[in-house]
User: Fold these one by one.
Assistant:
Number 1:
Amino acid sequence: MKKLLVPFDGSESALRAVRHAAAEATSGPAAEIHLLHVIEPLLPAMLSDPPDACEAGRLDAHFPAQAAEALAPAVAILVRAGARYSLHCLNGKPGAQIAAYARLAGCDAIVMGTHGRSAGANLLIGSVATQVVKLADIPVTLVK
């Protein structure tokens, strides 16, 4: 069975990528969509002594609810399409986590949205999609 990884951040472009992956998964050979939400840490990794309001335990307790809320619109699309899917949530830098998950899960391709910024803007602020294209060793389809 083909495995499609679809990173999902809740944006409109990510919703378009989910629709694209659902159509691909339901129109050809059997495929499963791995829907992945990556939560970027609020604190830099070098910060060793966070203030009480940002203790790791308190942040971790919030992740499952945040991920479920973020993934709900994508799940609705996949259910309506009748696509086979699984849900995943990771913490860390999105580009690196997406590429690492794709390798670990043995995914065949990544389908992700792109926000459509100009090349100049991507140079200045970076792009998760650009990072994934550089880091992934499988095909990446960008949906605008």
Number 2:
Amino acid sequence: MNITDIKGTVQLSNGVNMPYLGLGVWRTNEGQEVIDAVKYALDAGYRHIDTATIYGNEEGVGTAIANHATDRKEVFITTKVWNADQGYDSTIKAFEASLDKLKTDYLDLYLIHWPVKGKYKETWRALETLYAEGRVKAIGVSNFLQHHLEDLMQSAKVIPMVDQLEFHPRLVQPKLLEFTRQHNIQHEAWSPLMQGQIFDIPELKELAQKYGVSVAQLVLRWDLQKGVVTIPKSIQQKRIADNAKLFGFNIEAVDMALIDGLDAATRVGPDPDNFNF
């Protein structure tokens, strides 16, 4: 990953350029709250917004983008098909509903939100259809571990271009990270700041002081230097802007290794092998 500035991108396996920094809107309320958050992000220079059907705020995201001076073509929009909508026909229908809410006629990235057993292969087939029709520029998955990817790839005509996973200093999953690299699947981090828990890790506080940055900036820069796309969530204008100030410093190799060493296989979200929703 060539790290340049807030609008920098990584090239996916199909040649599509995906901004490596985005705004996540999980648990951001529909209506003015999400509209403001997306506006703050676009004003700050972000060009990647990540939402999902289950977040219930696609309409607000679409309104914010439609009303902003930034051209739609400059904004990379990701959403995800929810578990209850999985299956071939129901995924196509869910995609149509998402397009309507987002006020757009195409998506930049469409993801399977969770690997629902017995359904994700048919869901993937629907994503392949949408991709072949040119209605989405890239397709991928979320919360797929290595065995899920291997199973899907046995029948897939198109290899997922992205896998969005819980990724932070306490959950690095180096073998999975290496697997996605080997198969040219772009790793993407959700909950990169551990829902605020990173601020309680002493080693990160010390390193942040060394580089003269915040703990959040340190960890988000670590993501990028690991080659991982990152989508921190905030609704506060200053924090959204601060989370993008990642380009005036470089974490030394010894400190990258130190952060890697904080891995404790600890999740703040559900286990992809053990979820029931």
Number 3:
Amino acid sequence: MTRFIAACVQVNSRDVMSDNLARAATYARDAHAAGARLIAFPENVSMMSFGGENVRAAAFPESEHPGLTFFCDLAEELQSTLIVGSLHVKVAGEDRVANRCFVVGPDGKVITSYDKIHMFDVDLANGESYRESKTFRPGDSAKLADTEFGKVGVSICYDVRFPHLFRDYAKAGARILSIPAAFTRTTGQAHWHTLLKARAIENGCFVIAAAQCGDHPGGRQTFGHSLILDPWGEVLADGGTDPGFITAEIDLDRVDEIRRMVPSLQNGQTYKPC
């Protein structure tokens, strides 16, 4: 399928999972009614808790996760492919949890899952401090989702700052890059649009980036602005700062057109590192 409608669901997740899931599903059904058959959700779509203890308490083993069951049922109901930005999943033998994205097919079956590789361990100039590695166990594997729309490179939030991951996806056949996020308002205002445009342009890929928005427990503020971009870096849809959804038509022939114009995937050279 070379032409279809994609959607990003933008939500303000808080610390009651059932409420978060219900709101996300409402927007997804509305997006489906608008024609979307590939629907993406943000990072932490089922829960935005404050503090490691609360995050761990709200995590479940994958086989028992109510959020995963919910989205598998929703995918089957809508007969659509869902990119479930991330759920918090208990890991056997670990005190930390996985921040795990799931790609679910229209049959309600998981196509693949991906654990966020790069941990957001930073101190911002405004005094905000984050140490994801204290709560989350980083993943160690890139994952391509082989969907009815072709191959999708899967990532989560802070991964966007590590361009080699997306170049590897493009070289492996991805035409779409998924970058669900809960970007902080501070870093989002500075870098969100620029980073996503760069990942689209340098790889000749569509980028689908569903995002959290608004104020969350513990004083965390996220940027919103879910984006769908084409391989030329053009913004096809922008979710602004409020909950809701956006849609855009994806024409995968555009990928081939752009890659012929700027064949950077073929022109890359190997070289000795510094």
